[in-house]
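comment on this one:
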Amino acid sequence: MKTVLTAISTIAVLLLVGSSVSSVYADVPAWVKNNAGWWAEGTIDDDSFVQGIQFLIKEGIMEIPPTTQGVSSSSNEIPSWIKNNAGWWAEGTIDDDSFVQGIQFLIKEGIMSITQVQESKKSVSSVSTSDDSVIASLEAELEKCSEIVKAYKRLDCEKPIKQEILVHTYKTGAEHFDLGPITYHWFGVGSEGNEFEITPTGQPILSVRMLAENTSSEITAINCTSPAICNYDVWDGSKAFKYSGMDFTSGQIVMNPGDAREFNILFGPNIGYGGTQFEYDSSKSYTFRINEPFGSLDVHLDLE
């Protein structure tokens, strides 16, 4: 992650235009609720929360409606009502749009700075698909969805098609790891959503994005409840590092036979709840470890 609250660098976001809080549909991944809840409880400080949101926007994991960027505020203090909203949102008391309005407020007030504007990207591979007839056909269907005016109907149209594109892209371009009923598909460090960086403050940040596919004939789940109780971590040969953020809704991802689900895990600051601070030593070799009841797997991480 390249951003800090007081020294903002590149942020990839949706085009930010307009002058008021918008009611345009907000797409917020469920795992952000964990961090929002911890922030509301005081487990995560303001800077860490803002850095996390900026990272999610940069990676295209979190989308916000068009919002005008305000002039940098003389005070970086976040109003208490936004923290209250975060806690209520984490509990399910308020909806996604209400939470996103708080994020828009931070941008408008200059508390959360967006200094480089470009369209966010959520594709998982840089592999050209121009010669892929399957992708071409799906993209043609997707284009038709853009003609739908109502946002929620357009999203309902786009969602299954985007999922088909996602799965096809993983299956045709990623590395594959078979483990019991699940096949894990992964593009490797350096691909979109799989990045390793060290912040200006010296904190290493590693993001891991994979697709888990249930290739069995039975319902199967992969599990990660909290940093202390998670079947996924990073190992440096002597120490295990627990996550700072993940998107396992309610601690697990349940898949019917044939289902495939993309998941994201972030390693960085210690968020508590049995977590650890991710550390990097160039002399060590790192692996992403999977330790599910149905089997164990070590995936080498080429960190530079």
In short: The CA atoms of residues 287 and 301 lie 5 Å apart. Residues 1-25, 114-130 have pLDDT under 50 and may be disordered.
